[in-house]
Design goal:
- This protein is an alpha/beta fold and 206 residues long.
- The chain has one domain: Alpha-Beta Complex (Spore Coat Polysaccharide Biosynthesis Protein SpsA, Chain A).
- It is built from 7 helices and 10 strands.
Length: 206
């Protein structure tokens, strides 16, 4: 993988609608957060920063996050997602070339991450942001050129966090159409999780 492609996984939320920690949901016979870490590792991301907050201790016990993966605790997680982005971006190295920003509740595929990186690397002019898309619907994770790292480190909940960064760079955002149903998943409720796991979560995917 070209340059230093960092991974940032946001897993600090309270999972209120799910009723239990999303990070510990079973996905492909492992905790969902472990699946996310493993797929980013398989895609060649180095380093990977995982931001924890609510229920951090049992999550840390349940997963393996060894170098190049590291855990960061966001004690201010109740203030909103922007605080986790700031905490994670602050832990990323200044010499990263791009950052894959992933949420714990949208299962990853390593192949999708590699596709985002390849598009970012080869398209001319190079985009500041690359967003996967399925059947016209924007998905996750998104790739951010490291030139936007200061923006990520400065996001605020009052300005809608990551959305503000996306809006500021609309003209330099590329949308990559992929045949990956996982990019459009959001495991926010038990019903959504059960349906997604039945359809996609019984095995891992490259």
């Amino acid at each position: 993988m070209p340059g230093m492609i960092a991974g940032l996984i946001l897993a600090a939320g309270e999972s209120q609608r799910m009723g239990r920690p999303k990070a510990l949901l079973d996905w492909a016979a492992k905790p969902l957060l472990q699946h996310q870490i493993d797929e980013l590792l398989a895609a060649g991301c180095d380093p990977i920063v995982v931001v924890l907050g609510h229920d951090a201790a049992p999550i840390e016990t349940a997963i393996t996050c060894a170098a190049p993966c590291r855990l960061v605790r966001n004690d201010d997680y109740r203030s909103g997602r922007a605080s986790s982005i700031r905490a994670g971006a602050g832990a990323l190295p200044d010499d990263a070339t791009a950052i894959i920003v992933a949420s714990v509740d949208t299962p990853l595929r390593a192949a999708t991450v590699r596709a985002l990186v390849e598009h970012w690397q080869t398209a001319q002019p190079r985009s500041a942001i690359v967003v996967p898309r399925l059947a016209g619907r924007n998905g996750h994770p998104a790739l951010f050129d490291a030139a936007l790292l200061p923006d990520l480190r400065a996001v605020q909940e009052s300005s809608q966090g990551l959305r503000a960064v996306r809006r500021a760079h609309t003209a330099r955002t590329a949308f990559l159409d992929l045949d990956d149903p996982l990019v459009a998943l959001n495991l926010n409720t038990p019903q959504a999780y059960d349906a997604a796991r039945a359809a996609h979560g019984s095995r891992s995917h490259d």
